[in-house]
Design brief:
With 132 residues, the protein is mainly β. It is 12% helix and 36% strand. The chain has one domain (24-126): LytTr DNA-binding domain (OB fold (Dihydrolipoamide Acetyltransferase, E2P)), CATH 2.40.50.1020.
Length: 132
């Protein structure tokens, strides 16, 4: 894997290259609010609308597609179904025979049949991550 820290970045401040992801801005009750991607447990898409579930137990309805929202997220987020994107950090249990992920907060998310093997492999390896 290549790292690009040795290259010069003219006219761009160094703090803009941090590992943190910019918060997602949404409209809620007529006011713009920002949601940190780290606080999102999963997102559920329904057509041109998306429900965002947070670790605080809140549910937000956004008039954006699941695909457009998932483009702004980190690699911790996994597309497990046509209608679901989950944050791997909040997966508590995987029920393989039922194709269900139990999320933090008690919610359950379906895994598509075609992605079951891939998701199982990703989640099994996610427990071996080393963080500095």
């Amino acid at each position: 894997m290549k790292t690009f820290s040795a290259f010069a970045r003219p006219n761009i401040p160094a703090q803009s290259f941090g590992t943190s992801v910019a918060p997602i801005m949404i409209q809620f009750m007529g006011r713009p609010i920002s949601i940190s991607p780290d606080s999102i447990t999963f997102m559920e898409g329904e057509g041109n609308y998306t429900f965002i579930y947070t670790n605080a137990g809140k549910k937000y309805l956004v008039s954006r597609t699941l695909k457009s929202l998932s483009e702004h997220l980190t690699s911790n987020f996994i597309r497990v179904h046509k209608s679901y994107v989950v944050n791997a950090n909040y997966v508590e249990e995987q029920l393989v025979h039922d194709r269900i992920l139990k999320m933090a907060g008690g919610k359950e998310v379906m895994i598509s049949r075609r992605k079951l093997r891939e998701i199982s492999g990703i989640l099994d390896h996610s427990y071996f991550r080393v963080s500095a």
